[in-house]
Amino acid sequence: MVVFRISEHCSRSVVARFGVAVTILAVSVTSILAWTGAASAQGRLDARYEASLAGIPVGKGTWAIDIADDQFSASANGASTGIMKAFAGGHGTGASQGRIVNGQLAPSNYAATIASDKKSETIRILLLAGNIKDTVIEPSPEPSPDRIPVTDAHRRGVIDPMTGSLVRVAGSGELLGPDACKSNNAIFDGRMRYDLRLDYKRLETVKVRGYQGQVVVCAIYFKPISGYIPERAALKYLAAQRDMEVWLAPIAGTRVLAPLKVMVPTPIGMAALEATQFVSTAVVRTTAKTQ
Asked: What is the pTM (predicted TM-score) of this model?
């Protein structure tokens, strides 16, 4: 995806900030487990995506995920293509890593860079137990008196945008069902604090390279909290939308679901991010017994 982060500009819409790219989505998880004589489950995903606007291709990207029992990490990259590249060429990279605590993804650090022909911006976030410990934006943005301040309270109990694009279904029951959409994430992207809530809509059957079967479709509701300028038309538009949705597919060997498709209405047509490849494998690692 091109950076799936929510922004105040139409060129960086929800499809541009939901995880780490509208034309990229790549999460690479490096896991190091040390269990005494234990077997641990892992899942890996190699996915490729294409982004379109009103049916016109605008970007491509990849997403590689590797999830272990107790930790994860992520990296992402992608770029604009076609007519979008001609008018507003750009590319993005992202990375996130953390642990899995009590069945939940708990990120420890996040970084994302979006570059175009005219400018480049890098955001770095350090988290501890769901709280923001440090944030750096390079180059430093100009202060705006119209921007709603991000308070200390808004920096607690949050996750980063990339982690927020993954859904872990608790328990041992059905993966693809209403429970998969019981999510209300508090997200901080380095500049803005917002909520993304999911609600169950339906099941669909899909067929792409590497995956054939059901996916769960969730409605997406966006609510800005702070760090934004209230008069921005793009944010008002996104907050009013009731037709945004994400299609989630399982990563083999885990209870984590990843986006196979994201659809966001815009004033000039539907913005979509859709997997052209979604290859996941389960991996079981057995460590040698130590004395």
From this structure: 0.82
The label of the residue with tokens 């982690």 reads 163
Region of 108 (left: φ > 0; alpha: ψ -120 to 50; beta: rest) is alpha
* β-pairing verdict for 256-266 and 245-250: antiparallel
pLDDT tens-place string over residues 86-134: 555 688 888 888 898 887 888 999 999 888 877 899 999 999 999 999 9
Buried b (16+ CB within 10 A) or exposed e, 34-46: eeeeeebbbbbbb
Phi/psi for 16 (5° steps) reads: -95, 0
Q: Are 156 and 130 in contact (CB under 8 A)?
A: yes
Structure letter (DSSP) for residue 191: S
Which residues, in sequence order, are CB contacts of 3 under 8 Å at separation 6+?
12, 16, 17, 20, 21, 22, 24, 92, 94, 112, 114, 161
